[in-house]
User: Fold this.
Amino acid sequence: MSSPICENGGSSKPVKKNAVLVDGVYLNGPIMDSKAGERFVEEAFPIIMEEAIRKATDVNEKVCEWQPPEELKQCLDLDLREGGEAPQQILKRCKDVIKYSVKTGHPRFFNQLYAGMDHYSLVARFITEAINPSVYTFEVSPTFVMIEEVILKKMIECVGWEGGDGIFSPGGSVSNMYAVNLARYKHCPSIKDEGLSGMPRLVMFTSEECHYSIGKAAAFLGIGTKNVYVVPADERGKMIPEELEKQVQRAVKEGAVPFIVCATAGTTVLGAFDPLEKIADICQKHGLWFHVDASWGGGALMSNKHRHLLNGIQRADSVAWNPHKMLMAGIQCCAFLVKDKTGLFEKCHSSQASYLFQQDKFYDVSYDTGDKSIQCSRRADAFKFWLMWKAVGTRGLEDRVNRALALARYLAEEIKKKEGFRLILEPEYANVCFWYIPPSLRNLPDGPEFWKKLHQVAPVIKERMMKKGSMMVGYQPHRDKVNFFRQIIISPQVSREDMDFVLQEIEALGKDL
Amino acid sequence: MSSPICENGGSSKPVKKNAVLVDGVYLNGPIMDSKAGERFVEEAFPIIMEEAIRKATDVNEKVCEWQPPEELKQCLDLDLREGGEAPQQILKRCKDVIKYSVKTGHPRFFNQLYAGMDHYSLVARFITEAINPSVYTFEVSPTFVMIEEVILKKMIECVGWEGGDGIFSPGGSVSNMYAVNLARYKHCPSIKDEGLSGMPRLVMFTSEECHYSIGKAAAFLGIGTKNVYVVPADERGKMIPEELEKQVQRAVKEGAVPFIVCATAGTTVLGAFDPLEKIADICQKHGLWFHVDASWGGGALMSNKHRHLLNGIQRADSVAWNPHKMLMAGIQCCAFLVKDKTGLFEKCHSSQASYLFQQDKFYDVSYDTGDKSIQCSRRADAFKFWLMWKAVGTRGLEDRVNRALALARYLAEEIKKKEGFRLILEPEYANVCFWYIPPSLRNLPDGPEFWKKLHQVAPVIKERMMKKGSMMVGYQPHRDKVNFFRQIIISPQVSREDMDFVLQEIEALGKDL
Assistant:
């Protein structure tokens, strides 16, 4: 047999005297030994616990074990073969994959808009994987349908709406697509059936600091990237409302049809919040759908201290908010929320498949929520957030957000004090953007040569930190600024000691440059 | 503190004499006790093992513990509160959620196009959850990027192409959307930037038996549901090529622009395979993109005995194939594959975000595959399939497919022999469609009254089986046929004894109707 867990399967030996043979296959008894499978899971668990949970979050371990692509291929033995491998060999594969994976829950992982490890969420995710649900009908996902409903309702409260609707989607990018599609449907329902050909040109608006998914949405939904009118942002990264007004008027003058403004609450690089109240005024004036991409910044809604950053969000028609980012619910956990209570999701997306959404079921089929979605099978991403919330409480989530933002503030102050570091802008949220200027550049005049050399500093420090495995911090050029570090602070496992470490480590890695 | 795992956090007591206070928050040390979190995971594991794995796949346990929506709300205590709950209380919540969830890995779950439990895949999924990767760059997902590449290459070989490209997507529906978008881009690249407004009307073709996601794709991508020309299928559920030819000619005559044919390999209800060779001929003749939705039927590509069902797929331009269905990789695991080797994904979808896809990285950035996607954060769905394949081998996967189809054949033969059962059509794949006719209807003449009464039988039996928790089998009306059962056979944990049980149980539950 190809696998040690398959014991009496396939086209090999019969298992009983009165065996049933069909198409050359014996059909008596299972061909998979579930007990052996369970033993495998039991043997794997201590490895997961030690390597992927304990060590992966231990500050004394490496955050990554760097190997270049070609070398990594060799380390992992990637090839798939005719025959299977013994469980012990598979356990070794598991160890190898864990070893060479980046530990995104490590206290020194500051590289993306997610980080940390919440053990409650993790347990919920293990359960979800074991239960393997698909959230389309109450029939096959009773618990997860109900949990999704409750947590969406709670998130809608946080936004400040009196009711609304929502769905969990596979990413903020898809949530933004939902927003564009619902706005388009609201603007002109016949587009669902007739399509855009022959329709007037639709135009959407967003700032130059928006997430790249807005452009992808325009391309994918047939609107076209050129019909995304990009509104300038101020030096803090916030959309300038007067410029938005100008762009709307420009579109109207051109004979095009404006239909949606996509504002951002928490931009990817700078962590900036667009002025939502003023944008809401403009949307109201022109009758435009007001979408807020709060995928990253939505976390601040949990904090009484910081939710003012999103003042005006209660006037939005739709909101994208990813609890897998600031709230650590685990990738992916992305809510798309709408203020509408008239069943816009169903009207815009439903196709009433008779094999799935039968109307003669014996329970209230309004709980069969799958037809709201553009997906068919859909993961139970609400559960992990719900269990974490149950365990930590609203107050616990708030404490985490407050703490992360206080740490960002602390880091910014340290940067301002420390020689060789220059803060790009005062953080409002959890993005701290700064340059490290090595001693060799400190006396150069502020001219093209200085900036050219500084541009090359962050990539080299990044390479060194990854090869050492000491930490991971992102960098990028942005608008008129050469490469700078962007440190993201999220996890309640980190503290000021980690902030201090980051600056010391960057200095240690880059002082010779 | 709101949560017992948070020990010294938030705005409460300082932990050190030289504490740093920012915005009213002490910043020394973590505010989360990781050790307590690890203990929680360790305590949860035996519960998951016993309740969500062992019992959930034990044929002597119930497949579901039915509660109506309102009662279920009470059972679960869904409310989210200011304060958190103690770990022991959270463990109870976990048990409750498991208890009331449908056990989709149970040997008597025949309700959807997925079923069973593969323990290797499950362990990979636990690891993925602990590592919490997002597959967009080699930098943060080195292992998973490499594994995705290898498994896509292997799947492309199975399709029969000499090379190609692919990506894992969040569902077959999204894969079908990818197909439509790539086909549209290939047909007219300027649509990405210009949009569809002012363009000639684009038309897509699919059969009346296609998955409902084709219509959703047309709506979402701005093409319009009316521009999906629906081709009649024969009585086996296969697209009629001559009718496709007629529809293409109709579109051309109308001045519209045909650009894609979406064929289906393994339809949802009947498990039918469209005649791919003949459809390929028509696509070739008219220069149309040929997409095959093999989300369900793709599993047959693993079987030398059954892959003939997909003869002609090697001529497709793109294929959707979900290993989470027949191959039990766990929801979701959905590959979208294209024959093109000229970087169509990047051209069609890229947006070159400078904060993520920096070009001055220290490694080969061709491994930063995220810009191929319409998503930003993306799950490592390839890994679970890869680990399972490693363990079971190509041969083991083939054995499972052969066995499932042999069991379907066996069940069909039993249905033909058994009084009161009527087979709808001979199965080609793992869908067995049949009516159960209770004794009270057996002597009725074949007229409207008979069919009206028969239509009501399956829903009642379904209600009874769910309330009893003995098994789950789907039913639906389909085209001119009243409600019938659709039994799906996948898992290597089931055997002929389970097939026999299904028929006996339906009879026991419905003989009084």
In short: Residues 1-15 of chain A have pLDDT under 50 and may be disordered.
